């Protein structure tokens, strides 16, 4: 990373000034952490864990997360009516509903309790489904500054003029992987760039194309994106032709704030000069995110 050389230089300069200091950190009572992002027409599921103390070890990759809470009670309410109880699945290490699916234009509450933890709750309103009016691709539409050929993708949809709306777009190739880099000059798309030298300055991650309707409320919105040529081409497989897709998520304000904070958090992790960043949370008496959304999907041909 670009900060490693700077850090090494600083440590070498300050090494001769080392002084051992003991700091007493008061223990903090653990709280529940809920993580759930759910689209319409699915049985919602949630990962429920607990906070980790400052001296507790990080989870080891490939092993069972020791901070997963397996004995929680997770209740799902729809428009203030109890609809389902999410059950723990040992294979996925998540809690999942079996009766109620998420529906657009309804409000959901997730209430989570477990022994020795304060009860946590989060509320999410599911926005309406916004269809994709048109999706077109023009292959080899332009040559970028580096001499690479790029395809142009145009997406249009009608925004609701009576509400404050937020959207998240995903670009997936024919195998279902998010694109590494997507480019746009549209000023409504948040410039959530990854501050790393290996990423071009204008590179936007294909799973983090975020925008609000502040400048196009109640109108037809057309977005223009560019990707390196061929990344969205169909692929022939033994099971048939697979096609790249675009997902248009109509999200609520909590999901919008969380996505922005996630980008800031990731850029601050390896930067010793950055201010600490807390991930946005809508969970009362706990941490995490519980959010629901309505998603439209179309394939690129």
The multimeric state of the shown protein is single chain
For the largest sheet, list the strands in their spatial order: 7-6-3-4-5-2-1-16-15-10-11
What structural category do the secondary elements indicate? mainly beta
Helix content: under 10%
Order of helices and strands: HEEEEEEEEEEEEEEEHE
Low-pLDDT runs of 5+ residues are none
Task: Write down the overall geometry.
Answer: globular
Report the major sheet: 11 strands, mixed
Rg, Å, rounded: 22 Å
- Structurally, the number of domains stands at 2
Strand content: 35-45%
Distance between the termini: 38 Å
| Helix segment tally | 2
Mean pLDDT: 91
Number of strands: 16
Key phrases:
eleven-stranded mixed beta sheet; 301 residues; Immunoglobulin-like; mainly beta; 16 strands; 2 domains; globular
Summarize the structure.
The chain has 301 residues and is mostly beta strands. The protein is built from two helices and 16 strands.
Describe the protein's architecture and organization.
With 301 residues, the chain is mainly β. It has two domains: 32-52 and 64-125, Immunoglobulin-like, CATH 2.60.40; 134-275 and 293-299, no CATH class. Helices cover 9% and strands 37% of the residues. The chain has two helices and 16 strands. The chain has helices spanning 4-14, 253-268; strands at 32-39, 45-50, 73-78, 81-89, 94-96, 107-113, 120-125, 134-143, 149-158, 166-172, 209-212, 220-228, 235-237, 240-242, 245-251, 286-299. The strands form three sheets. An eleven-stranded mixed sheet has the order 7-6-3-4-5-2-1-16-15-10-11, covered by helices on one side. Strands 8-9-12 form a three-stranded antiparallel sheet, with no helix packed on it. A two-stranded antiparallel ribbon has the order 13-14. β13 (235-237) and β14 (240-242) form a beta hairpin. The relative contact order is 0.19. The mean pLDDT is 91.
């Amino acid at each position: 990373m670009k900060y490693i050389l700077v850090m090494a230089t600083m440590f070498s300069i300050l090494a001769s000034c080392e002084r051992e200091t003991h700091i007493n950190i008061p223990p903090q009572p653990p709280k529940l952490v809920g993580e759930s992002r759910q689209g319409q027409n699915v049985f919602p599921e949630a990962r429920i864990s607990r906070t980790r103390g400052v001296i507790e070890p990080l989870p080891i990759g490939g092993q069972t997360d020791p901070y997963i809470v397996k004995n929680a009670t997770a209740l799902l309410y729809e428009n203030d009516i109890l609809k389902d109880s999410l059950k723990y699945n040992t294979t996925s290490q998540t809690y999942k509903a079996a009766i109620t699916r998420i529906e657009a234009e309804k409000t959901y509450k997730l209430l989570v309790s477990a022994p020795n933890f304060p009860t946590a709750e989060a509320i999410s309103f599911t926005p309406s489904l916004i269809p994709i009016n048109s999706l077109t691709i023009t292959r080899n539409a332009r040559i970028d500054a580096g001499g690479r050929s790029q395809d142009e993708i145009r997406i249009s949809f009608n925004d609701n003029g009576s509400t404050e709306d937020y959207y998240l777009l995903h670009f997936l190739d024919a195998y279902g992987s998010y694109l590494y880099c997507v480019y746009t000059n549209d000023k409504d798309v948040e410039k959530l760039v990854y501050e790393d030298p290996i990423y071009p300055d204008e590179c936007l991650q294909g799973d983090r194309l975020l925008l609000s309707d502040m400048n196009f409320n109640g109108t037809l919105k057309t977005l223009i994106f560019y990707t390196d040529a061929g990344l969205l081409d169909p692929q022939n497989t033994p099971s048939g032709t697979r096609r790249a897709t675009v997902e248009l998520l109509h999200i609520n304000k909590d999901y919008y704030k969380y996505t922005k904070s996630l980008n800031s958090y990731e850029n601050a992790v390896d930067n010793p000069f950055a201010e600490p960043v807390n991930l946005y949370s809508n969970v009362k008496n706990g941490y995490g995110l519980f959010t629901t959304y309505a998603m439209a999907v179309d394939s690129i041909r």
